[in-house]
Amino acid sequence: MTTGLIPGDQPSDPRPTDALPEQRREPVGPEALHVDNRSRSSVITARAAATFEPVGRSVASARSFVRDTLQGWGFADIVDDAVVLTSELVTNAVVHAGTSAEVRCLRSDEGVRIEVSDRYPEREIPVQSTAVNMGSPDREGGRGLQLCAALAGRWGVEYTPTHKNVWFQLDLPQRPVGTRAAGPPLPADLLPLADGRVRVAVVQIDRAGTITAWNEDAEELFGHGADQVIGKPLTDLAAWPHTPGTGTGIAEALQLSRWEGSYGIRAATGRVIPVYASHLRVRDTDGEPSTVCLLVRDHERAVLQTPVRLTSADQKSTSDSQSSDPFEVFIGSPAPDDLDGLLQRTVERARDMLDGDAAFLLLATDDETELEVRASTGLPSARQRFARVPVEAGPGRYGSARMPAVHDDLTAVPGAVPLLAGTGMRSVVTVPLKVEGRLTGSLGVAAEAPGRYSNEDALRLQFAADRIALAVESARLGELERLRRGSLSFLVEASDLLAGTLDRDQTLALMAQMTVPTLATWCAVYTIADQASEPYLSYVLHEDEELIDGIKSLLSKIPPPDPVPTPGARLWSAPGEAARQSALRSSMHSLSLGDSPHRVGATVGPTLATAQAVGGETVVLPLVARNRVIGMLTLGKPTDEHFRQEILELAEDLSRRAALALDNARLYSERTAISQSLQRSLLPPELPEIEGVEVEVIYRAAGEGNEVGGDFYDVFPIHDGAYGFAIGDVCGTGPEAAAVTGLARHALRLLAREGFGGPAVLERLNSAILDEGERSRFLTLLYGEVRPQQDGSAVLKVVCAGHPLPLRLRQDGTVEPAAEPQPLLGVMDDLELYEETVVLDPGDVLLCVTDGVTERREGRRMLGDDGLADVLTTCTGLTAGAVAARVMRAVERFASDAPSDDMAILAMRVAGIQQD
């Protein structure tokens, strides 16, 4: 594509020389009878030109070129008509004629003239004499010229030997100075209704999004004083819509030059007040940009909403009420990517065009099997929005949405149009929206009186639907793309959050918090422990926390949904029916007791609130993991609201990820419980009380979730007032080391109680470890027996097999080893071990540790035996518990990193035997 924009007073003719006036030309069109289409008495002030190749994407490029050009010239009022006409004419050139097309935009004091030239001059233009009616609107040929006749002030077709040039001119609207738009006068009964004084809140926001001004009406509407909000971000108060991938964020809206739309403001009471806002970007005297926000209550939006712009066809029909032109057309004025605004404008214009009481527009799902209500007027929109009906409902029902249909009296054919059931509408006309032969939607207009519509009305509505179908489909695809991008981001974030925890309760909470309020108003999660168990209500969440208890109570009284593994969302009507019955029973019971209306309202209030909260559509999605249903995710809407199909598909994707995360958390919890139970069995249940001797143990296993590792300890009674004690270290950490730990501890107790002395006990334990074969691990072990004496001392018999030497702390503060080193266990078959005897005086302390204590490192520094002895010298006069605690505190402070090895500390202090 090549473009050029040349401003000037009188530019040269932009067309090729072979298209100049002296060449052959054959003007065709309504103006050809009385005006020379090539005459240009007005002064051209600017022009823009672009050439487009004969490919399909050129049509969209041409639309963008014309839109950008006219908006740059400040002619936003005629952009819609110009884009539609350009699209039709360029499509004829690049698709049907198969040649390149040149588009020229010419600005003059009379209006804007747009010319589309192609290189296929022999193509016949379908005309019927000079009449504007150029055949049936269902014909493919000549549709572009029908649009020119309907929308353009002047138009024509010109031929040269090498080119065909189709042009149209759009006149600029005449407005008084100082006005931006004007609407037709309305009867008093059609004017917007306000329930009191209309207050317009004026809020000014600086470039950082901070509130800088807050007027009195804002204080009255929201309850916040100016001193309470000035200086705070608007995002603290704004409750922006959370549907992923749709709408504009609050930050983006504040950056736009002009924006209109609905959102909520959190009042001082905590309630969210729906407002309609108009944002205008301004610049102050210092050149700093800021945004002025005008806000009114949402039902008073007519105060701020941009008036509907009338097209030339509308203006003609308004001025001539007797006009019966069957090809009356309309185009919605919202931006192409504003799907909701476009659809709402469409139904309002369709209703007005056929003088109906209501209108509705449905969009088809991707598989064209269902239609989803997306816009309506004159109907209970909250109940109808996103409701779905089948495309082919069979005889006596909706019929087929693929063909136009006229129903003279709906009471004669009950259920012919399910959406109108109970609305009081009697007659209806429906037509399909099609793009390239594919059904994309359905447009209908209804009236309360029977027999209002004829086949001619259906033809007029069909022509209007054909006009709007392409714009609707384009906007729908744009919305779908944004929703999909938002959905992908949502699922990525959800996956990250779910993968970040293996805690079951936290996983349940995350599931609920990700769905409310993004996907639903409330949700409940049911879990199933095993195939024989009933579903259990595990978690309930509502966007209003005050309603959670009421919903939980309601759901606990009804049977849970069936755990069906079929993928996808299915409707569940039980909560809504139970809520309505509960509200009705509460109301009747209060009235039967003779309560006053005020007291009845206070009693039934919470029940009614719960009924309204769960009274809308409720769906259930199975949580399936590893081919087993482990629960159900229930999503709900408030009274009369429905889910969008895209939201249900997103919820289905989320449920699959959540189910796997929940099952992983379950498996992890089960395995952790088993592991912890087995590990606890490897530790002594409790320490015995030894008369005259204080005993304290501190144990730390390395690794997350481990209670026992390769280090172990034990203190147990043997016989005749003697007690055995042991502290050991198996090579390595983790479950393999813990297995040897269990073997060593139980073998020590058994052999010691059989009467074997220390060396014999360790030699037999060494043989047992070697018998394990490849599973064996070498083991360092300090084993001893302590026997309190009558004089208050204690006699110890100790064998130190490769273990760090025990340290003795005397009352004078001296520290010395209490044993000699001997070979470790699990390495050699023949061991010759010997026993050493140590006498501890009253006040003496024996400290035994594993190498996780002495080998504590910080960089190249290591605590070592000397460092441990230094710590022990400071423990004179301390109890055994205080000694163990001080040693552990010193070890932890020695390095900043978490310990990488198991640690065990056994401290014994001889306190002396108390005499009676």
From TrEMBL:
Molecular-function annotations in GO: phosphatase activity
InterPro entries: Bact_Sigma-Reg, GAF, GAF-like_dom_sf, HATPase_C_sf, HATPase_dom, PAS, PAS-like_dom_sf, PAS_fold
PROSITE patterns: PAS
Biased composition (Basic and acidic residues): 21-30
Pfam short name (any one): GAF_2
Listed SMART domains: GAF (SM00065), PAS (SM00091), PP2C_SIG (SM00331)
Matches recorded under Gene3D superfamilies: 3.30.450.40, Histidine kinase-like ATPase, C-terminal domain, PAS domain, PPM-type phosphatase domain
Taxonomic classification: Bacteria, Bacillati, Actinomycetota, Actinomycetes, Kitasatosporales
Name the UniProt record assigns to this protein: PAS domain-containing protein
Low complexity bias: start-end ranges: 311-325
Keyword Hydrolase: yes
Domain PAS positions: 202-232
Domain of life: Bacteria
Swiss-Prot/TrEMBL keywords: Hydrolase
Entry's Gene Ontology BP terms: regulation of DNA-templated transcription
Keyword Hydrolase among record annotations: yes
Transmembrane regions listed in the UniProt entry: none
Region (Disordered): 1-30, 308-333
